[in-house]
Amino acid sequence: MTATPSEALQRLLGIMARLRAPDGCPWDQVQDFASIAPFTIEEGYEVADAISRGDVPALQDELGDLLFQVVYHAQMAQEAGAFDFAAVAETISDKIVRRHPHVFGEDAARDAEAQVAAWEVQKQAERNARRETGTLAGIPTALPALTRALKISRRVARVGFDWTGPEEVLEKLAEETAELRAELPAASKARMQDELGDMLFVMVNLARKLDLDPETCLHAANAKFERRFNAVEELLAEQGQTPADAGLPGMEAAWQDVKRRES
């Protein structure tokens, strides 16, 4: 018989407690928040990967792994006397209800755009309550750099610090590219890092202005490059060559051939 959500969750909580018990798993017993955090981040990416591949069975499996990470952190917090899983669930439930007064309260119905605006107002109020001041307060430093840059640029855009359109961003990108080019003859690594960072930040803003997610764009570009280079290797193999045998000219010719076949 299929377990109820409550029964399944209680079983998982019991398994986690058993792993951390004195007679439990030696590896699990010695973990802490910091040592488990990288696994938590990794599991989030694996959920996103399953979604991008449209693999529903894998999504079920990866969501389980991600849930286990929440249970893991809650168990360690409970052992430290800080909070438990129930407190985590209650906190997020209260937050979601508070941020949706048009559903759970008496506020007027909202369309999606109005809800986004109201959501941001509520989140700002919550940051103020935590005494997090400033437009950029509360953006996690551990986010992937592209994602954090997008959040930063969205925040400052809401207070009017923004370009009017993608054309202006492209002009800024050309300016930053010229600055990097000017540094190249004798630039230190630190200077090149600074200028390249500026270019990447501008490109994140360009993606935002085009209503695109930069992380998704780069993910797709990675996949395209991987697909094409694999095809290059296969094409060279048909000719009895490896990439090293073909050299750059041979690989470039094969690359152009692959692109023509794709188009």
UniProtKB/TrEMBL annotation:
Gene3D superfamilies linked to this entry: MazG-like
Source superkingdom: Bacteria
Protein name per Swiss-Prot or TrEMBL: Nucleoside triphosphate pyrophosphohydrolase
EC number: 3.6.1.9
One GO molecular-function entry: nucleoside triphosphate diphosphatase activity
InterPro entries: MazG-like_dom, NTP-PPase_MazG-like_C, NTP-PPase_MazG-like_N, NTP_PyrPHydrolase_MazG
Main enzyme class: hydrolase
Keyword Protease applies: no
Keyword hit for Ion transport: no
Primary gene name: mazG
NTP pyrophosphohydrolase MazG-like domain residues: 31-104, 166-230
Pfam family name, one: MazG
UniProt KW keywords: Hydrolase
